[in-house]
Specification:
Blueprint (H helix, E strand, L loop, with lengths): L13 E4 L3 E4 L39 E6 L2 E6 L5 E5 L6
Antiparallel strand pairs: 1-2, 3-4, 4-5
């Protein structure tokens, strides 16, 4: 988000995705953690992990993709957002 250039403070209401930067999320999703078996809202599907090997992840199986959600990485079904796997604390701040 261009509003955060040279900003060092807290970014309430925003999540971070490497390669994408900060992005706004609806208040109802703040500090929310989804579990395997739930459906990830489609607002997060676009923040795809293209360098999955950097995080020690395997190639996503056919019909799935890895996506960033705040400090977690989710493996989801690319058609309905069904969560297959969750990696918490994917990187250190």
């Amino acid at each position: 988000d261009h509003r955060f250039r040279n900003w060092n403070g807290v970014r309430a209401g925003f999540y971070f995705a490497p390669g994408y930067g900060y992005y706004s999320v609806p208040r109802s999703y703040w500090n929310r953690h989804w579990q395997v078996g739930q459906y990830l809202p489609d607002i997060f599907w676009r923040y795809q992990v293209n360098d999955y090997r950097t995080y020690g992840l395997g190639f996503p199986p056919e019909g799935t993709r890895w996506v960033y959600v705040d400090n977690s990485i989710y493996l989801i079904d690319q058609y309905d957002g069904y969560i297959v796997q969750v990696i918490r604390n994917a990187w250190r701040w």
